[in-house]
Amino acid sequence: MGMAAKRWVSLRAYGLITRTLFGARTAPRVMRARFERFGRVSREKLQRRFPRLEFQDHTVDGLAVEALCAVEAPTRVILYLHGGAFLMGSPASYRNRAMRLSYRCHAEVFVPAYRLAPEHPYPAALDDAFAAWRLVRSLRPDGPLFVAGDSAGGGLCLSLLLRLRDLGLSMPRGSVLLSPWTDLTISGKSIDANHGRDLWFTRRHLEAWARYYVGGADGRSPYVSPVFADLAGLPPLLLFAGEDELLLDDSERVVDSARERGTAAAMVIGRGMQHDWPLTLPWLEESRMAWNAIQRFVEEHSR
Q: Backbone phi, then psi, for 112, in 5-degree steps?
């Protein structure tokens, strides 16, 4: 199969699977169970394939944090906040992705099991991300430290950076955000402009899922929707978004706002790509290019 055909088939299969398993009206607990069923992988299975892979367990204030390292003598540390619309996802269902991040970035990766909506709406996830940050800082005070995340986790990374800045606390060296969900008021232009081109999301998806997380909070709060925040004083940002995804504008507005306030921000748009494509379709050439960009970013800002 040629590259163009492989790309076409991969994208259509992605759309079919995501639409089928994670519908706008699917109950959160059902989606969560499906996410775990298809994404979860045991430590033992991974270690049989990769014998040098190591895990550690940590807790802080009742929050479980899994640390993973795929390389000897890692040179940096990454706190990774998983995606899943604030409703689903876990360290276990992100192990393959965390392992790839560890290997490509020569890093030890920490993934917290932050509390999920609708049982735990805002600010539970942000409080847990902050607790995980404090834990990682205390465990690894000396090496270069980064924060990264995808989708809801990407937006949560930005919210965490804002809290750290507002409290006058030390910042990471940089942040990598893959298809971040930064606007829970669902007001971006690409919501309508990419309708039908996005093979998974519709406005109905995003509005329903946002309600679960926002709860009784103000959706325009910078800690809920960091696209509306003053982004001055943040570390360098590297954002990724698919050209055809509904959340494209969530990244483009963040980049523009960050630059206006003097924060370094770069963006990679995957041409013809969908939400989270470097994670969900890692075999594509576009994904390999994205991973190379992530590796260069963390290397540059580790010096």
A: -80, 145
CA 256-104-153 angle, 5° bins = 45
Looking at residue 171, its amino acid is: M
How high is the pLDDT of residue 2?
A: 84
Q: What is the pTM of this model?
A: 0.98
Calpha distance 125→117 (Å, rounded): 8
Question: With 80 as the cut, is the pLDDT of residue 1 above it?
Answer: no
Annotated active-site residue in 66, 108, 245, 252: 245
Choosing from 175, 275, 287, 301, which is the catalytic residue?
275
Q: What is the mean pLDDT of the chain?
A: 97
Catalytic residue among 151, 159, 190, 225: 151
Closest C-alpha among 283, 288, 292 to residue 6: 283
151 is catalytic: yes
User: d(Cα 161, Cα 164) in Å, to the nearest integer?
Assistant: 5
Average pLDDT over residues 52-56: 97
Distance CA 101, CA 279 (A): 10
Domains and CATH numbers, the chain: 14-300 (3.40.50.1820)
pLDDT at 303: 92
Of 88, 85, 150, 106, nearest to 282 by C-alpha is 150
